[in-house]
Amino acid sequence: MEGEALHFYHVSGSLKGRIDKAAGEEITLGRAPDRHVRFDPERDILASARHARLVLEGRVYYLQDDGSTHGTFLNGEPVLVPRKLVTRDVIQCGRGGPKVKVYYDRDVKKCPVCGNPVYRRHIRCPVCERKVCLMCIDHQARACRDCAGA
C-alpha cells in the first residue's frame, strides 16, 4: 500500500512558504539529499541529516524521531515515542529549527477550477462565490476563469 499523500507547508526555516508533497509507507524528513521532505543543508542546521520519519499504520501516519541531535517536536511537545499525526499538526526539527505544518491530502481544499491545493492563498470569486487558487482568477474580468469564460 502506498499510503495517502501528505502536504508539508514550511512555516519557518529557510524554505518558509514552500510546500512539499510525499506519500508512502514511510516519509522521511531531514537535511540529507535522500529525504522526502528536505531542509536546507547549510541554513537549517538545527535539523539533522536524518531527523524524523512518518510511518503509516492503516490510514494514519505516526511521527517518530530518527535519532536527531536536537530533538523532534510535535505542536511544541518533544516526540519521545511515536505520535499520531492529524491535519494541521506542526512538526519542528530541533528547538528553534524549521517547522512544517502537515495536511492529509483528504483534508486539503482543492481549487474547483484546476484541482490544485488551495491552502490559505485563495480568492473568492465574486460571481460564483467559490474559493479558487490565485492561478484561476481572471483579474481583468474580476472573476474565476470559469465565470470569466461563460
Q: What can you see in these coordinates?
A:
By secondary structure, this protein is mainly beta. The protein folds into two domains: 6-107, Tumour Suppressor Smad4, CATH 2.60.200; 110-150, no CATH class. The protein is 3% helix and 37% strand. The protein is built from one helix and 15 strands. A six-stranded antiparallel beta sheet has the order 2-1-11-10-7-8, with no helix packed on it. A five-stranded mixed beta sheet has the order 4-3-5-6-9, with no helix packed on it. A two-stranded antiparallel ribbon has the order 12-13. It is elongated and about 55 Å long.
Output the keywords.
150 residues, mainly beta, Tumour Suppressor Smad4, six-stranded antiparallel beta sheet, 1 helix
Write the layout of secondary structure elements.
Elements: E1 6-10, E2 19-22, E3 26-30, E4 37-38, E5 52-57, E6 60-65, E7 72-74, E8 77-78, E9 83-84, E10 90-93, E11 99-104, E12 122-124, E13 131-133, E14 137-138, E15 143-144, H1 145-149
Parallel strand pairs: 3-4
Antiparallel strand pairs: 1-2, 1-11, 3-5, 5-6, 6-9, 7-8, 7-10, 10-11, 12-13, 14-15
